[in-house]
Amino acid sequence: MSDIDLIIQRLELRGHRVTQSRRRVLDAVLAQPAHFTVDDVLRATRAPRRRQPPVGRATAFRTIRLLLDLNVLCRILLDDGTLHYRLSTRGHHHHLVCRDCGRVEDFTQCDVEPLVRELAEAMEYDIDAHWLEVYGRCRACRQPTKEPARVR
Amino acid sequence: MSDIDLIIQRLELRGHRVTQSRRRVLDAVLAQPAHFTVDDVLRATRAPRRRQPPVGRATAFRTIRLLLDLNVLCRILLDDGTLHYRLSTRGHHHHLVCRDCGRVEDFTQCDVEPLVRELAEAMEYDIDAHWLEVYGRCRACRQPTKEPARVR
DNA sequence: TGACAACTGATACTAGGTCTCACTACACTG
DNA sequence: CAGTGTAGTGAGACCTAGTATCAGTTGTCA
Q1: pLDDT digits (tens, 9 = 90+) for A117-128
Q2: In chain C, which nucleotides are within 7 Å of a protein Cβ?
Q3: Does any strand D atom come closer than 7 Å to the Cβ of A19?
Q4: In A, which residues are within 8 Å of B105 by CB distance?
Q5: Max CA distance (Å), chain B
Q6: Could you tell me the domains of chain B?
Q7: Are the C-beta atoms of A125 and B96 separated by less than 8 Å?
Q8: Digit-coded pLDDT (tens) for A96-150
Q9: Are residues B125 and A114, on separate chains, in Cβ contact within 8 Å?
């Protein structure tokens, strides 16, 4: 079953209609690179080679929000402080982002847990969430000979 | 030496002028709770009891940005995804934020390092930065008898 | 077929932030 | 002490990301 079918299934399962507009946003989302903004998606739905009517801005934002609620997308915090969107891997995960090419690796072996437990004890907090993003340069971008393959 | 004098010293050291407007923004920043927005600061400079002329919006934003550059302030990511500002403790640190009262604890015993090293090896990334925010409820806010002391 | 709810898109609005530009106020130089 | 150049200022236009409103459209089910 393809990505798009899985997402459509998830939409229907939650009682949402799968309309033409939503399908167009979905298509555009799946065609995006590692991470993107809502305007990137909007632009993609409006690309001249797509012979479909464009999607309204409000609808694009609404659909992205819906996909976020369904955990189809997640948000990713770039090192400049801007929030982008990204197709989400299932469950709790974090991002390792290459500053140069924008490539993103998801990682789940989230060994922040001991730290969080320690912190909870020391500070007497009930801790229920955390956010961790890691930034660096991937192997390809460190090789000076090759042109970095810009993912975004 | 007081906080404000230290900051002023840092400004001068970097060749910035210490003008009336900057002093007013600084006063307002130091009077803020755990974390704040630029508009909070603006409102504070315009509070009726202050008999000083108000600071322009652009100047407030410029000054906050300057203080950010000087590491006087840091940004803090709230769990709703909004970025606020906060007086920065020196050096690399993270935030533990109480969702209820907004209280913030800074922590530096940042044992993310082993995780980061492991990640660097596994993914073949040069890792140079990370961002970690932790959310929970502080002791005071967990006690049902007392009204939580709202820090912000 | 009708009715109702979900959805859509245009548009206005908000928050947070930058840009521009004419003006002001420092601080150095002669 | 005057002149001058530069840093800083404030008003306001503008930008980006996102939400609210609302009349009109579409899909679904009885």
Answers
A1: 888 999 999 999
A2: 6-12, 15-20, 26-27
A3: yes
A4: 123, 125
A5: 59
A6: 1-75 (1.10.10.10), 89-152 (3.30.1490.190)
A7: yes
A8: 999 999 999 998 876 778 888 888 999 999 999 999 999 999 999 988 765 555 5
A9: no
